[in-house]
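In this supplementary section we document a worked example of the pipeline. Step one takes a protein sequence of length 108 as its only input; no multiple sequence alignment statistics are reported here. Step two produces a three-dimensional model, which step three serialises into structure tokens for compact storage. The input and output of this example are shown verbatim.
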Amino acid sequence: MVKYLDNNSGFNMWNANRNSTPSRGGRSRIVTFLWWVVLFFGSWWLIRMWTAPTPVAQPAESELAAIAADATDAPSHIISSDNVDVDVRGLRISNIALKDYAATPQRD
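The serialised model returned by step three reads:
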């Protein structure tokens, strides 16, 4: 290593140039760091704003009431078998009656 650090290697010129240029003080390093922090969070915020999903508008109460009113107009069907009677209205299943099931428990 020492043989490469002689006067002809350019190391002395580099070292002299490094020592002759005024170094930046500690204050400018803090300012540089703060600018990088601001740049990072600013770009993070912009990317988040561009990639965020758009909110979907919720239907008003009157629209919900209209939808509920339409569901009551659906025709009702009664499904009957040997064991079960079921009332079906649209996609709503109600009034399930089990035929061979005792409503009150028998106590011995």
